Amino acid sequence: MPITLETLRRYAVARTLFAPTTLPKAITRLGFVQADPIRAPARAQDLTLRHRVKDYRAGDLERRYAALDIEEDFFVNYGFLPRATQALMHPRTPRTTLTEERQSQMDAVLGFVRAHGVVHPRVVDAHFAHGSSRNWFGGSSNASTQLLDDMHYRGLLRIAGRASGVRTYAERTAPASVPEPQPALDALVDVIVRKYAPLPERSLSELINHLRGGVPQWAHWRRDAFGRAKERLAHAQVDGQTYYWPATENPASRRHAPDEVVRLLAPFDPLVWDRRRFEHLWGWAYRFEAYTPAAKRVRGYYALPLLWHEQVIGWGNVSVVGGQMQAELGYVAGKPPPGGAFSAALDDELQRMETFLQAGASEKEGSSAKKLPHPPKRQIQPAPPQ
Which residue in 321, 332, 354, 252 sits closest to 286, CA to CA? Predict the structure, then answer.
């Protein structure tokens, strides 16, 4: 069957919104989960995983991190990925050469970490009194935290977990062998494709270029990796754009039928991450506006794309005020789809969101954290007119 725009939409939705499974299996299948510190109403990694993990609750990834075979690290951006995938990127050789003073600081901190096992940045700072320095945002930052982050990026340390949201560090065990550049780079490109396919050719090229952050030591081989990827991947032209996807998958399969589910997606969900593809598949522009001045925002601080069937029909801003979840919804067409099916599916999604946002772990896990009350009527407001 010919590959059409409708075919691509259904394929894109079906392949990434797979049946919910366990947390380890979901991370393995995704290959990489992008992280973001903003909590509105939850962090991006949690909003991404809630659609793909059975009975997932906000914060589960952080609570279970230490027991999972995963690592925090930089890939095409920062997030969580299987330990075996992270091993393909190390030993990492950053472009910045260490000064003797910086190397001496790292050696001292590494010795301190080895002696203490897992360390909090505050403890390191208290021991070494590193003071403060300017961070890349232009603000003042704890120099010890910057040093620990640099050591983590270079593969000397790993993220052991988090204490009240702050990363804690431990020594990273060096791998027994060093990966061969070409097969390792191809494997990393395959992780990109498995997560974000179907990909426009330009988007595929840009994502491979983003690997300069994950594997700076192989930056000069990215063009060759792009060429090899185009040779082994399946592809087709749709509306003048060439799309790529894994050769083992069939976008025209009848299995990609849309379901009767409404989903509020994270801004960095793999389905909507590629803004170029988003505009081609759904015909309107979605932008992440958290860092846009309030007066210039069109859809809100942390607008979540709203998916119905295989169409992204609008967006929602969700918050918790006084223990009650509030949702402000907007629609590209100016109003919600007619009929009771959408209304019922939206109500189900808002109920799932409430359950997901319940504070702390579930009672089954022994938490005494207070849960969000379920109000008689949710506060659902229309978004301001465009």
Answer: 332
